[in-house]
Amino acid sequence: MTFNPHTAEDRQAMLDATGGKTVRELFDAIPEAHRFPDLDLPPRLSEQQAHRRLSQLSARNRDGMSSPSFLGAGSYTHYVPAAVQQLVFRGEFYTAYTPYQPEVAQGTLQVIYEYQTMIAALTGMEVSNASLYDGATALAEGALLTVSTRRGKNKVVVSEAIHPYYRQVLDTYVTGIGVEVVTIPLESGKLTTDLGAIDQHLDDSLACVIVGYPNFYGSIEDVKAVTDKVHEAGGMVLVSTYPTALGLLKPPGELGADVVTAEGQPLGTGQNYGGPVVGLLATRQSLVRQMPGRLAGMTTDSEGKRGYVLALQTREQHIRREKATSNICTNQGLMALAATTYLATMGPSGLRQVAEICYQNAHYLASELEKTGRFEVVNQVPFFNEFTVRSDVDPAELNARLSEAGIIGGLDLARVNGDLSGHILLSATETVGKNDIDEFVRIAATA
Q: Which of 52, 53, 166, 199 has its CA at 20 to 30 Å from residue 413's CA atom?
């Protein structure tokens, strides 16, 4: 059965309007060699047959919940409590859009308000916005926030230890707007930012310095040393963090960060083959009017009952475009709801427990790999649940061996940094157990 939305009369009416005789004539402007390409499509299938075929294809995918996964690099396998999806897929939230009318969107507005409150508490900051697309755009928006706040300061200094894809997004964001991006190299022989290299950029043009906590290679940077140095020179510090790690580490706000951004995917959002995800952004109160997106606030109505409103709306859909702080057109509401439900379900003690298990699993994995004599942990400072190893084992060969055993291996760092050939970035979360780690080490030792 084929669905065709146009009747013969519809097609004739369109031809009459365009002056054409046949539908094929409408394609004459396209070169003949490319006009009707052979798509090599398979035979048509019934709905039932298509469902079976697509199910067979999807079964070939390997994901972190059905297979032990040691791959992180910005997207992590964490267990998502059943309560999260139960709430996310409720019709009231699942089909809701921007809460323009507070009187009919109290549930959505309360979720945004609770989300902001939890993210501010988690990061140790004073205010959080209503979420962004992902960790990369959150970082870019946060950097531009510091530029717009500090007139005449247009230099953004970013550590090479920030996720390489995040740095690419930042470069795209600043194209054509007069913002200079300077990359600070890694300290020689280490996988941390060369703090001494920051000194030459502490001038009147500095808007902010961006560091990771932990950084892309898993190392926990000395954020306090960075904030002390940069603040003395009159600049700001943006910290890109991993929210699960904050269940164990001191919040960036307590270390002096002015802006904190993160990929919120670990907070109740599955990896989903790359998306959708959610970007976190939190700042000091003094920067609130330059924040992208919007803020939900709590108030009372004319009867004294608690109510929620959009308290600050600085995106271009709400105010004159030239006064907008960004063109962010969504707040990733469903993913923010997932993060809110996850954090409320886990609570501070639950989040800390998850963080501790991640930490212990990663350090057990690192210790056991070093015992084989074929792997060396490169991180010379503490790490959370992700670390880099150097080995005589070819990363591609190792990952292929692991895949044959039903295990998802780590990231071959040569793919993102040509200087790190033979290095592998490994991650361990609460979803892998001792047996999984032991099997990984056994295969790695004989690869």
A: 199
Query: What are the DSSP calls for 272-305, one per residue?
Result: GGG-S--EEEEE-GGGGGG-SSEEEEEEE-TTS-
Residue 26 DSSP symbol? G
Output the domain CATH number for residue 434. 3.90.1150.10
Query: Phi, psi (5° rounding) for residue 261?
Result: -125, 160
pLDDT greater than 90 at residue 73: yes
The Cα 182–Cα 180 span in angstroms is 6
HEC secondary structure over 234-265: CCEEEEEECHHHHHCCCCHHHHCCCEEEEECC
Is residue 337 located within the same domain as residue 358? no
Question: For the ranges 113-127, 321-335, 430-444, which has the lowest average pLDDT?
Answer: 321-335
Q: Which residue has the tokens 């105010």?
A: 319
Q: What is the CATH number of the domain that holds 284?
A: 3.40.640.10
DSSP codes of every residue in 132-162: BS-HHHHHHHHHHHHHHHSTT--EEEEETTS
Cβ-based neighbours of 49, under 8 Å, separated by 6 or more:
none
pLDDT for 405: 95
